[in-house]
Design goal:
It is a single chain. This protein has 16 helices and twelve strands. By secondary structure, it is an alpha/beta fold. It folds into three domains: 132 residues, Gyrase A, domain 2, CATH 3.30.1360.120; 150 residues, Four Helix Bundle (Hemerythrin (Met), subunit A) (Up-down Bundle); 153 residues, Rossmann fold (3-Layer(aba) Sandwich), CATH 3.40.50.300. It is flat. Bound molecules: guanosine-5'-triphosphate (GTP). Guanosine-5'-triphosphate binds next to α9.
Length: 495
Amino acid sequence: MLRYLTAARRFYSHVPATFYHPTIYAVSTSLGQKSAVAVVRITGTHSEHIFQQLTGSRKKPIARRASLRTLYDEVSGRKNVLDSSIVVYFAGPKSFTGEDMLELHLHGGKAVVKSVLKAIERLGNKKAGQEIRFALPGEFSQRAFQNGRMDLTELEGVGDLIDAETETQRRCAITSMTGLHKMIFERWRSIIVSNIAQLTAIIDFGDDAEINDIDHILQSCARETETLKEEVERFIHKIDRSSILQNGIKVALLGSPNAGKSSLLNRITSDETSIVSDIPGTTRDTIDVPLDIGGFKVVLCDTAGIRSASKDKIEIEGMKRARAKAAQSDLAILVVDATARSCVTPELSELVISELSEKEVITVINKTDAVDIETVAEVRQKLKNQFGDLAIIEEVSCLDYRGIDDLVDRLSRFFKKLSDLDADPIAASKRVQEILKKDVLYGINEFLATIDLGDVVMASENLASAAEGIGKITGESVGIEEVLGVVFSRFCVGK
Ligand SMILES: Nc1nc2c(ncn2[C@@H]2O[C@H](COP(=O)(O)OP(=O)(O)OP(=O)(O)O)[C@@H](O)[C@H]2O)c(=O)[nH]1
């Protein structure tokens, strides 16, 4: 009897919310590509059954212990060896998904992986209640969320970490994945909830209270919420800056035709990305090149040369696009030809002074190999006269590479400054950003406006909607089905 009770307790205490969901499996490493090792993950109630069938063992697997096993497939009573694999079993709830999980570290040949997947599929028996199927995109993470292993911000962090291409993106993702955001949001929520509780007390028992006490409570709620508002605003501002890093810092290359913009792009990317020719007006449209400079994701954009005298419709359109790119950029590089008599045309000078005055502009004197030192000094002086403090000047030659490393260093320093890396950058999905602005901050602002008018009921409702916003972010509140679709659709199979 005691044995029965112990077994029953062990069974029921670990029942995950997804206990009756099908057991799912997927290749977690790149599917369809040859590799040394391929990892197949299985999660769900029938993980143990799959372990026993594949390994031919009748014993319960020992959790969290890697063992080398021969995997078999049984077809028409005949046992075939599929692979010799490292097998790790995780007993729920101490697993990524909160369910029982099995990991098979196979030899990464396509045929091996295919045969093991087929064998797992064959173990399913819907009529006998053993539903086993291939996982949908993001389904492992969805299970983790459903079983309370992670909240949505942590899961989005996992997604970002896997997608991270640069060091900065990785650092952004780590903050959400390690639950730092979750802690911040929980603290905000508890501040709001404690204020709602105080307002509710006034609404319910206000008639019996001293008017001074009520005033005191209202003032303290307003003060606390005002401080919270500042914190939320700072957080949103930080996300805005960090999202520049996530999406790529936009750098526009501007200059007169033939100044060497395409050559400079090719030198920075160390590639022949853009067409270089001595015919002015070769680049007629904008060309975006994503690249990693000093650990930052950068989108470098080559543009059409800007000059006044042109009747060519395509060239005019190209120049329009170049101006638009310059306006959208986080940094503009103005390429100046040291051999040209008028190194900065009036159009370019006007563009820099009037439209780019709020932006960082680096002026690059190019073709220094083709002129003497005095000429370079003259060009430098001209630029100083023209742009004054706006002129950050670098000297390069795209022909013999001189000055290119210094320019790249200068760019890295600028990106560091832009990203304010004293503090860790933070990333938040579009979904989180929208809720923060439209629900949380909006609710707080409305609260502050209504409390000023003395409308306690309305004020409390506004705070409640801010708290609900935070719940939507972490996935603990209303609109959950709606948010799940948005979050998990970004994930790939096996995640
Ligand atoms: N001597 C010398 N020639 C260069 C240098 N950089 C570019 N050139 C030459 O200048 C010409 C124009 O270079 P591009 O890079 O095509 O110039 P661009 O500014 O992109 O020109 P457009 O597409 O017309 O706007 C080519 O013949 C290049 O070989 C340099 O540093 N030194």
